[in-house]
Design brief:
Blueprint (H helix, E strand, L loop, with lengths): L11 E7 L2 E7 L5 H14 L8 E5 L5 E5 L9 H10 L9
Length: 97
């Protein structure tokens, strides 16, 4: 029997506008912390004029590496809520590696 688990099938980008502010969310599958940091840098390079680049990521079979940043927004209002959503996603019973 093969292991079954949920993951990101491919890159997803969603944009929304709220009170004349534009928010763009990027969801990417990464395998390492350096890959996660590269996605953050790609977002910064793609939108250099953005006021904030808030982010969160989880890496590793047990999600043991996790980081988030509000990037100047009020503390705990952006990065941490994103991280909590990721942490609440179903965890696989076992991983394929």
């Amino acid at each position: 029997m093969s292991d079954v688990y949920m993951t990101v099938a491919g890159p997803v980008t969603v944009q929304t506008e709220e009170k004349r502010s534009v928010f763009e969310a990027w969801v990417r599958r990464v395998s390492t912390e350096s890959e996660a940091k590269a996605v953050i840098e790609e977002a910064r390079a793609t939108h250099p004029g953005a006021g904030h680049h808030c982010w969160a990521y989880l890496v590793g079979p047990g999600r043991e590496i996790y980081r988030s940043s509000d990037d100047g927004e009020s503390g705990g209002t952006a990065g941490l809520p994103m991280q909590e959503v990721l942490q609440e996603a179903p965890t696989p019973m076992s991983w394929p590696w």
